[in-house]
Amino acid sequence: MVFLGAMTLQRYLHLVYFFAFLIVWWSYCGYLLFLLIFARGNNKKRGREAASGGLPTVAILVPFYNEEKLIKKKVENLAGLDYDPERMEVFFLDGMSTDASVQIIEESIRNRPNFTCLQTNQRGKINQLNFLLPEVDADIIVNTDADGLMEKDALLKMVEEFRQGEEVAVVGALVSPVETIDEEMEHWYAQNRARILETRVASASTVIGTCYGFRKGLIERFPEDVVADDVYTTLVASAQGKKAVYSHNAWAWEMRAANSLREMFRHKFRKSHAVIKELARFLPMVSKMKGLYRIIFLTKFLQQIVVPWALILFLVLLIVLLVRPPRYEIEISYFMFVLFLPWVYMANKILSEIKLTGKEPPGRSRLIIKAFLIGNLCLVAAGLAYPFYRQKSRYRKVSQSVLEGSRF
Fold it and tell me: What's the Rg (C-alpha) of the chain?
């Protein structure tokens, strides 16, 4: 009886071990293979000409708070965009700054009639956006952070994506930090390429808050409890059966990035916590999402909420099965673990094949395992803290700011 019970326990351990392995394998390897296969098939269908007609009107919203070191450069950056100024309005939304940010903006925009600085008397990015959003009458609304700088042609490139069809409701720029630690650069390397693959298959799972735009009417106001406005906007479009595009040629640069592993962890923890919140909000709407995007959304749900625990379970059971008799379990466990390694390598090769336009900072770190472990540690911490921790759209900024010596 004891022997039969032991055999049953071993059988259950193997089943759980194999199930955890499948979850981890799909999230980090199988999912990328899925994207690659369907992206190549969809590429043959692409190439439609953009809709004819004049440029759409664009309203650019820049919420800010105490950005006196960066805000003049932001004004100059937006003023230098290759876009008809008569079709573009820029609104700087002050979040009750206590430094010289407002004075610097007002001085910088004095001879720019399409630039406006508004006192919102609101704290927090979401409240600042909601202050103006219902009044905006432009065809396309662009949200961009004060520490994000756009390439001169970025807005035109984003508009080109919108003009591919009415089903395109959200367009995000391709974002990269100008300078950061190697582990953070590795994250962005994978982030950009995975989102581009998702776009080619169906729709991007997210855009980046540094610079993204959406069609008027998609969002009248953000819910007050939203923290990740970029994720929320993307999921609103997907829940309506529309498409979010992660552009492969509209570039924006993040001027404030982590300069230590501690800062990287803090930022990734906050972001992961906010993403979990939005995924949970939109999970009941998965039936309204179109075709292949359901797989993208559910995989994102797995990656953010399930995979960190499945990975821990997989590694714990690997150790358990290695030390338990009978000895054949050692071969089974070792084989499944070793089998995982080539798939990780293949997933890395898939991302490496996604060629960008050459503007990305050179010198990929190759610290794949270290970045992988940090990312999953952030996910586990965010998942544990989620029931007890609440955050707002006000937060401590990453300290590093790169301006001197840059081409900006």
Answer: 23
